[in-house]
Design goal:
This protein folds into three domains: about 230 residues, 3 helical TM bundles of succinate and fumarate reductases, CATH 1.20.1300; about 100 residues, Roll (Ubiquitin-like (UB roll)); about 190 residues, Alpha-Beta Plaits (2-Layer Sandwich), CATH 3.30.70. Helix content is about 55%, strand content about 15%. The chain has 17 helices and 13 strands. Strands 6, 7, 8, 9, 10, 11, 12 and 13 form an eight-stranded mixed beta sheet that branches. A five-stranded mixed beta sheet has the order 2-1-5-3-4, with helices on one face.
Length: about 550
């Protein structure tokens, strides 16, 4: 619905901009206005153009009513209220304009030029002021929609001064042309075909009927919204302050907060574009309806963990507790920040990967050649992580830290980490083949994998934060990677990881090792080839 509303709005905006620029030619002459009108009419008065324009207008209005119906509260930011009110004010003004132009043209069966329309408007006491007000209302609604659609885009800040200049220039030129055209003609209606009394009655009947239909639809929508908001059960929303809010089922978290007058960030107005309304869900997460496509896309874009939801989209059916992740005054800058918010303890799988003998690689090569090889290496490792749903957390000279389990449970994450190690081994073979002519010996890697609880979240300086993990289990994974040198293997994985993955450790060598920083020994398995180890344990393909 949002995409259709945007598409129909852009169609209408295209017509409006062309129409307003047509008005601006009034500073030249009415003939110039009519020549451009004929060009535009060839598009918009054709059958495809008519269907596209009026279909977009009716669809956009219907979607606006649907959006109004879905609102369970009318509390909203001032800009959003202004856009809504301006949008609803357009049709009462526009109906008379359409009847006076398009319908008159159809009844007379001949073009209605600018000379006649401008004469009629300026000869009426309210015609010109009414037309001017319609232009300003339409343009205001259009500018609100375009600005709040684009302002969450990174490139928009660069072009915003130009957009503001055009937003001022276009209506100014249009009104100037309209005034100049009215000043340059007499006030007597031109000798063009006149409507008969019956045709004028028909036009008045059309106008009255359309206006009645408009107000009836708006009234019925508001009535249906009011009835809907009072039916059904309620849920309780618990805030970090301890305050508990009761809201009807169907009302989003953002709407519930607004209805209680509690400030909450929502740069895009609750359309799942900016993600500034995101909250961390505590109690009631399991019972919360899963995110729909539009919310899921937004959450994936900011790499949000599973317990983070958009307040504008989450509609609880049972009691739930939430914690806002951004201040109520968050703006466009915060909208573009990663959504991994505050650190928290959670089960995770840590994988350390190290490129063996990287110092020897640099002995007989120019720095640029070394950088080229290293970039190729990290590119292959990144693709292996992406293929196995791993997260590239840290880069450390000749190695990296990867995390598994940010979007899955621990058993799944353990299996995915083993798949990632196998994929890395495959990609290292490919890289060695590609660089065989440039390397005296094949490149080798060491991989350490361990699972357990760790602190996961955004860390580092404010200007250059990273999303990573710290904790004893992360250190253990680093120690296991170092053990691959002692055991002469590619992978050292903890027995705990294999147990969670429900993987049989046969063909792997068991070691009881002492890890620096831990008193108890740790059971680990040394694996020569992760590909053979992983693929041998996959279910056989079924016919």
């Amino acid at each position: 619905m949002r995409r259709l509303r945007l598409a129909t709005g852009l169609v209408i905006a295209t017509f409006v901009v062309g129409h307003f620029l047509n008005h601006a030619l009034g500073v030249v002459s009415i003939d110039a206005m009519d020549r451009m009108r004929e060009t535009l009419a060839a598009v918009w008065r054709s059958w495809p153009g008519t269907v596209l324009l009026y279909g977009s207008l009716l669809t956009h209005f219907a979607l606006a009513l649907a959006s109004l119906y879905r609102r369970t509260t009318l509390r909203m930011p001032l800009w959003e209220a202004a856009q809504l009110v301006l949008g609803l004010c357009i049709l009462p003004f526009l109906i008379g304009h359409i009847v006076g132009t398009r319908l008159t043209w159809m009844l007379l069966d001949e073009p209605v030029g600018y000379e006649r329309i401008i004469t009629l408007l300026w000869s009426s006491e309210i015609g010109a002021p009414r037309q001017t007000l319609l232009l300003l209302i339409v343009w205001g609604h259009l500018c609100f929609g375009i600005h709040y659609w684009l302002r969450v885009q990174a490139w928009y800040a660069t072009w915003q001064p130009l957009a503001l200049a055009l937003a001022i220039l276009v209506p100014t030129l249009s009104l100037t042309g309209f005034a100049a055209a009215g000043y340059g003609i007499g006030l007597a209606p031109p000798p063009i075909g006149q409507l008969s009394d019956s045709q004028r009655g028909q036009a008045a009947s059309w106008r009255n009927g359309l206006e009645l239909a408009f107000w009836s639809l708006v009234g019925l929508t508001l009535l249906a919204r009011m009835i809907r908001s009072r039916l059904g059960g309620t849920y309780q929303l618990k805030l970090p302050s301890g305050r508990v809010i009761t809201a009807p089922i169907g009302r989003s978290v953002l709407e519930a907060l607004r209805d209680e007058g509690i400030p909450h960030a929502a740069v895009c107005g609750g359309r799942a574009r900016c993600t500034t309304c995101r909250v961390r869900v505590g109690e009631g997460l399991a019972a919360l309806p899963p995110p729909k496509v539009v919310e899921m896309q937004a959450l994936l874009r900011i790499e949000a963990p599973p317990n983070v939801r958009l307040a504008c989209q989450a509609r609880p059916r049972q009691n739930v507790s939430v914690t806002p992740l951004l201040p109520a005054g968050a703006g466009v800058t915060e909208a573009r920040q990663p959504g991994r918010g505050q650190s928290r303890e959670r089960p995770i799988v840590a994988m350390f990967v190290d490129l063996r003998d990287s110092t020897k690689l640099a002995e007989d090569r120019l720095p640029y050649d070394v950088v080229f090889v290293m970039n190729q290496f990290f590119a292959e490792m990144y693709e292996a992580l992406r293929a196995s749903r791993g997260y590239y957390a840290q880069f450390r000279g000749d190695g990296l830290l990867a995390l598994y389990g940010l979007q899955s449970d621990l058993p799944t994450a353990c299996r995915e980490s083993l798949a990632g190690a196998a994929e890395m081994a495959r990609r290292m073979d490919k890289l060695n083949r590609d660089l065989a002519a440039d390397l005296p010996a094949p490149l080798r890697i060491g991989i350490g994998i361990h699972c357990g609880l760790a602190i996961v979240g955004t860390m580092g300086p404010p200007d250059a934060p990273i999303y990573s993990a710290i904790g004893d289990n992360i250190n253990i994974a680093a120690r296991l990677e170092g053990m691959t040198k002692a055991y002469g293997c590619t992978l050292v994985v903890s027995a705990e990881t294999l147990a969670h993955a429900e993987t049989d450790p046969r063909d792997a060598v068991l070691h009881h090792v002492r890890v620096r920083g831990r008193e108890a020994r740790l059971d680990v398995y040394a694996v020569n080839d992760p590909r053979v180890f992983f693929e041998a344990r996959q279910p056989a393909a079924q016919d």
